[in-house]
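pasting for the record
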Amino acid sequence: MKIKENIKLFLISLIISFIIWYGVSYTILLKVERWEKEIPISISIPNKLVLKSISAERIKIYGKGDNPMEKEISINIPIDKTKEGHYKLSISNYILKFSKDYNIYKIEPMEVDIELEEKITKEVPLVLSINIPKKIKAKIEPKMAKISGGKSAIGKIKEFKVPDFNIPEKLPANILLPLTSPSKEIELLSPSTVEIQIEEQKK
C-alpha cells in the first residue's frame, strides 16, 4: 500500500515539476523570441518639392525569432507626387528592407501623414554677426548667398549671417570663413566660404 502511495505521490510531483518547468521555459522562450525596433523613415522626394511636415519620423517594428540590429532594417518611401499638399502614406504598401528574412507581426503606425510644398531658390545678403568698432571697416566678399528650401521657410529668410570671428590686432587683414546651412530646412547652395576684408577707417 505504501509503495503505491509513494509511486502516486512521485508521479504527481513529477507532473507538477514538468508543468512548472514548461511554464518557465515557455515564458523565457517568448521573451527571447519577441523583439521591437524603432526605424527612421527615409523619404525620396522629387527635386521641385520638399517635405514640410510628417506625422511620424520613425516606425516601430515588432518581430519574433532572430533579433536583428537596427542597421539591418531600413524603410524608404519613394514619393511620386508632383504637387504640394497633404498626403497619407500607407506603410504596409512599402517594402521593409532586411539583410535577411525576419518574422514581422506588427508595424506601428501603419500610415503617416505628410505635407509637401514647393521648393524655391533665393539670394539674400551676407551680413556680419558681430559688432564692428566704428574705427574699423569690414567688407564681405561675395556679398550674396544663394539658398534653397521650402517656400514657407525661405520666405522668412531676409539675410544670411556669417560666423563669428575675432578681429586681428594687425590691420589690414583678410579672414576666410566657412559657411554652413543655418538649419535642416535651408540648404546653402553658395558660397561655401566668404572673405572678410578688415581695415582701419580712413580719417
